[in-house]
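User: Hey, quick favor. My workstation is busy. Could you predict this chain's structure for me?
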Amino acid sequence: MKNLWAPWRMKFVKSVHKLNRNKCIFCSMLKSPVKNDKKNHLVYRGKNAFIILNIYPYSNGHLMVIPKRHIADFTLLTVPEFTEMFTLLQRCIKSLKKIYRPDGFNIGLNLGKSAGAGIDKHLHIHLVPRWSGDINFMPVINETKVLPELLDATYTKLKNTLKLL
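Assistant: No problem, here it is.
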């Protein structure tokens, strides 16, 4: 058997936050002072929506676009919320293309627990950069993901690139 060493992950393992089911993690991040944005991986704050990195990414650059208003029902988004969310999604795609040059993207909404939403009370759009040949057997045979870049490095690149667009 071979070992895959990732010692930088110990910091994360030791500091895993237990989700308080009475509080929304997205709303908590948004209420946190701007000075905590880097720690929270909150990349952008807009008028009606914001962008965060997924702390359990499928690939580098996996982010989420989220309405500021705590809402689970997609059909109840206001026109300004909907418009800003999809405008930010376009900006994120442009930024990620510039930074990582992916071959494609997965974009998705999981509406409700039965649809796979880990956080089902506050809707969010996932954006996952993909590359041809990026599928490997590590997740299947070893329940392990291999990500070549730390979240903090991804945060800095995305934050800087979004400013330019």
